[in-house]
Design brief:
alpha/beta; binds nicotinamide-adenine-dinucleotide; single chain; 2 domains
Length: 364
């Protein structure tokens, strides 16, 4: 029997609740498909700050590096809001991304037809978008800083503090992520939309130039371009017309939350962060630690369970086990079972986190 090493980072808030659900589903799906897992639990985020004074202990990073894949819940919460910025729980995510070389973030926004009525957008019948977000460059990793100035301006006021964050992308970084975008489009309905702000930003203009250079190597893919502000409107207006969107770190961060919300709930959205082939990928729900519902049993475990399904597919190539999980989730929704975030009609049977996990396990 093949055994895979999985590093599990439950994190904070609802993180431990949803990762425990996903681990039980992974174990059960693995048993049915003749594969097994060696899970190693690691600390990161607020709980690591409490134990070690830092959000990402080196031991966590080492365990992740030595694993076949990483499953993460969520980090952060109001308890750590006053911690100095360089030690906040969210720094653990940046540390894991750079420490594991995870440059590509895949965020599928798939509308389950059973949940169409839970969408805040009217009349969305179908939606199946893959957002490919660059993850280790751009403004989140560019030069940040502040400069103080006592210069007196023409209106007599003092200029004071200026804060800056810099958007910077190299040809190598852009080419790497665009190639991923083209390849994913080839495996889907062959349409790639590059989202940028090329009317204003020089970095966006470089993205467009490189995309145009690469396009002839992918003749089966139709490439189009959209400004990010227009894209945010079109996602609401015509979500079913998008296939693969490729974009920078910050635009992808924002658009993937918007696209996700159209599907009904942030509690349904999985994600994968991948690096070079053969290195461990990291899989996590798009949502955060939801401190407002932690410990209440209201957390929807499906985003993390679908992240586990992506883990099987993208990092372990265990397609049958991955398909099994997706089918079980669909079956559970089709039978009318809902957590409270996705319940929208009187006929829905509303379950807590553990009950929803049990229904999915039954349907594997
Ligand atoms: P959030 O995603 O945690 O919560 C937003 C809203 O969605 C809340 O009302 C929450 O109850 C609800 N929600 C989220 N996940 C849900 C689920 N599985 N089931 C049902 N409802 C769900 O975002 P936030 O409130 O802005 O952030 C809370 C904390 O999480 C902050 O500290 C933030 O920094 C952190 N965060 C972490 C990550 C991560 O670890 N990847 C991502 C985003 C935010």
């Amino acid at each position: 029997m093949k055994t895979y090493k999985i590093a599990v980072i439950p994190g904070d808030g609802i993180g431990p609740e949803v990762t425990s659900a996903a681990v039980s589903v992974l174990k059960a799906a693995g048993e049915l498909e003749g594969i097994s897992f060696e899970f190693t639990e690691c600390d990161a985020g607020g709980c690591a700050i409490d134990k070690y004074g830092i959000p990402l202990p080196e031991a966590t990073l080492e365990t992740c590096r030595a694993s076949d894949a990483v499953l993460l819940g969520a980090v952060g919460g109001p308890r750590w809001d006053s911690v100095e910025p360089s030690k906040r729980p969210e720094r653990a995510l940046l540390g894991l991304r750079s420490g594991l070389g995870l440059y590509s973030n895949l965020r599928p926004a798939l509308m389950f037809k059973e949940l169409a009525s839970a969408s805040p957008v009217k009349n969305v019948e179908t939606m199946d978008i893959l957002i490919v977000r660059e993850l280790t460059g751009g403004i989140y990793f560019g030069k940040h800083g502040r400069a103080d100035s006592s210069e007196v301006l023409s209106d007599g006021s003092v200029k004071g503090v200026t804060a800056y964050d810099t958007e910077e992308y190299s040809t190598a970084e852009i080419t790497r992520i665009l190639k991923e975008g083209f390849r994913y489009a080839q495996g889907r309905s062959k349409k790639l939309t590059l989202v940028d702000k090329a009317n204003v930003l020089e970095s966006s203009r470089l993205w467009r130039e490189i995309a145009a250079e690469l396009a002839p190597s992918y003749p089966d893919v139709v490439l189009d371009y959209l400004y990010v502000d227009n894209c945010s409107m079109q996602l609401i207006h015509r979500p079913s017309t998008f296939d693969v969107i490729v974009t920078s770190n910050m635009f992808g961060d924002i658009l993937s939350d918007e696209a996700g919300m159209i599907t009904g709930s942030i509690g349904m959205l999985p994600s994968a962060s991948l690096g070079a082939p053969g290195t461990p990928g990291m899989y996590e729900p798009v949502h955060g630690s939801a401190p407002d519902i932690a410990g209440t049993g209201k957390a929807n475990p499906i985003a993390t369970i679908l992240s586990a399904s992506m883990l099987l597919r993208w990092s372990l190539c265990e397609t049958a086990a991955s398909d099994r999980i997706e089918k079980a989730v669909r079956g559970t929704l089709a039978d009318g079972f809902r957590t409270c975030d996705i319940a929208s009609s009187d006929s829905d049977i509303v379950l807590d986190t553990e009950q929803m996990t049990s229904k999915i396990l039954e349907r594997l």
